[in-house]
Amino acid sequence: MARANAFYAQSGGVTSVINASACGVIETARKHKKQIGRVYAGKNGILGALKEELIDTSRETNKSIAALRYTPSGAFGSCRYKLKAPEADDREYARILEVFRSHNIRYFFYNGGGDSQDTADKLASYSKRNDYDLSCIGIPKTVDNDLPFTDCCPGFGSVAKYVAIATREASLDVASMCETSTKVFVLEVMGRHAGWIAASGALAQEKIGDAPQIILFPEVPFVEAGFLRTVKRAVNSKGYCVIVVSEGVRRKNGRFLSESGSKDAFGHVQLGGVAPVIADMIGRKLGYKNHWAVADYLQRAARHIASATDVEQAYSLGKAAVELAISGHAGVMPIIKRVSDSPYRWKIGHEKLSKVANVERFLPKSFISQDGYGITAKARRYLEPLIAGEDYPPFRGGMPQYVRLKNLLVEKKCPVKW
Questions:
Q1: DSSP E strands, 29-126
Q2: 156-302: in CATH 1.20.120.450
C-alpha cells in the first residue's frame, strides 16, 4: 500500500520565522518515511489545494530545506483567503478532498493564525463527516501574538526584538537633535486588536523615563486631551518624546483612529495608518516638530535580527505537528507552555483546534501600567525571554543569504479547473 502523503500550507501574513516551521515539518517528515511519503506544499497557501498547485518538496535538497530555517517570508507563497462555512457552501471543502484523494494526502498541516486554525478545524470536521481519513494539525503563526492557550506565537518574538531595537536606536537619534530640531517621534507597529507588539517597544528602556515615553495600546481607549498632556510633560522633562503606537488604537466610541472604510478578505476593517494621524495632531495642537514611521513589513521580515528563542520555537512547533500527526492525533494545534520565566524554560503541548479557532488573546490589564501608557514589571518578565538570543543567517558580501526553492509542481490529476 502506498504511503500517505502530507500537505503543508502557509496562510495569512508571513513572518521572519514561518519558514523555520516549514523546515521543522519537512525535515521531520523526511525522518519518518515509513509513515509519510511526500510532503506537498500549497502554492500560495490553501489556494494550492483548491487549484491543485502542489509543490513537491521532495525535489528540494536537504541543504535547501535546512536553509529555510533562516529564510524570511513564505517560501511557498501565502494568501489571505477565507473558506466559507461548509454548512453554507461546501464546494471548496469537497474540492480540497478531491485533490487530496487524487494525491493520497492524509496529513494536513496549516501554518497560520486564528482564521487559519478555524479553516483547519472545519476541514477536520468536514473530512470526518465524509469518511475521509485526514489528520488536520494547525501550526501557530502570528506576529500579533493573539492565539489562545500557547504562551507565545512564532513570529512575535522576532517582531518584538525588531521593534525594541528600532525604538532604542531611533530614540538616540531624536535625543541628539531635539534641542533645535525634532522633538517627537512616532513609530507605528502592527496589532489590530491586541497590543503585544506595541508593548514590546518598552523593552527599549534601560531605566525609568527612557524612551518610549508613551505606548498606545488597542486595549486602552485613546483620549486626546490626556495624551497631549503626557506628550507635553515628556518634552518639558526630557526635551523629546518617543511614542510607539499600535495600528489598532481606538477612541472611546470604538472607532479606529486610522479607519479607512474598506475591508480585507477576512472582513477586517482596513487601517489607513495611525502614525501620521497622531503626528498631525501633535503638530497642530502642540506645535512640536515631529517625524513618524511605519514599521509595516520591515518588522515582520527582519530575519537578520531574529530572536533565537523565536526561531527555535517556530522550528519545534513544525516538528511537533508532524510527530502529533503520526502518533494518531488530529484536530489539534501544538502550543508552547512556559515552565519558568528566569531561567526561561518551555515545553510543547497541544490543544484542540475547536478551542483555538477564532479566539483572540488580548494584552492583559495586569501588563499595562496604571496610567495606560506603559507596561508593568509582570509584562517585562513575560516579554524579555521571547527576544533573547541571536540566530544570524549566513552573510556574503555584506548581505544575508536566503534560499529560493525550485518549487516544482506535481502533475495535476483532477481535470476540473478551479
A1: 36-42, 54-56, 105-112
A2: no
